[in-house]
Automatic annotation (TrEMBL):
<keyword id="KW-0472">Membrane</keyword>
<keyword id="KW-1133">Transmembrane helix</keyword>
<keyword id="KW-0812">Transmembrane</keyword>
<protein>
    <submittedName>
        <fullName>Uncharacterized protein</fullName>
    </submittedName>
</protein>
<feature type="transmembrane region" description="Helical">
    <location>
        <begin position="165"/>
        <end position="190"/>
    </location>
</feature>
Length: 210
């Protein structure tokens, strides 16, 4: 058996485990096995925790992608227990998070199976970012926002030329609207510098609004 111990703190990564504004602390653990076999995962904690296993990569913005298996909440206690068949030539990501949002605390994992198993804690570096956010969560507001339209489209550390077509179109339209509004304001100011035009009520209004 292999034992892994850690703790979820205020400095731990967070994500939206379920749809909504609430945040869940989580830890990602990279798993590699030398022998393809069935492994059993048991937990021990003073808080109710969940366990998820992903193949190759975990995307906090789409928690269902690459999902292999997950633990089920037991009404009888805080611990979970589940089994998974792991292949030796595949890297797996074990995600440990909580049942309730904004909960921190220690936990231990006991993994039964072949002794040739490697566990390494990893920090999830996000390849995708949400406009107007800190690359850690997705919040749903009222109406259609840029988050809804461009969610997961922006690629971090990537030039504009290598961004998706949707991002390029959005940037282009924003620039066109901004330049058009700026030109309109300048022309309005130039036009209504004429004293005769400003004597008319609409002329005064247009000058002040520009």
């Amino acid at each position: 058996q292999t034992i892994y111990t850690s703790i979820l703190t205020k400095d731990t990564q967070t994500y939206s485990r379920v749809c909504g504004r609430t945040q869940y602390y989580y830890e990602t653990i990279e798993i590699n096995v030398e022998n393809s076999s069935i492994y059993r995962f048991d937990s021990n904690s003073s808080i109710i925790i969940y366990g998820y296993i992903y193949e190759n990569k975990f995307n906090p913005f789409n928690p269902t992608d690459n999902l292999v298996t997950r633990s089920n909440y037991s009404c009888g206690g805080y611990e979970f227990q589940f089994t998974a068949y792991l292949h030796s030539n595949i890297t797996y990501i074990l995600v440990i998070t909580t049942f309730h949002s904004n909960i921190q605390g220690p936990f231990s994992l006991i993994i039964y199976g072949s002794n040739n198993i490697t566990l390494n804690r990893t920090i999830n570096h996000h390849d995708e970012c949400i406009i107007g956010d800190r690359c850690n969560s997705y919040t749903k507001g009222i109406g259609l926002t840029l988050d809804d339209i461009l969610r997961n489209e922006i690629q971090r550390n990537t030039t504009i030329n290598n961004q998706s077509f949707l991002i390029k179109i959005s940037i282009g339209l924003t620039i066109i609207i901004f330049v058009g509004g700026l030109i309109n304001s300048i022309l309005s100011l130039i036009t209504f510098q004429n004293l005769e035009l400003r004597k008319v009520g609409c002329g005064i209004y247009l000058l002040s609004s520009s």
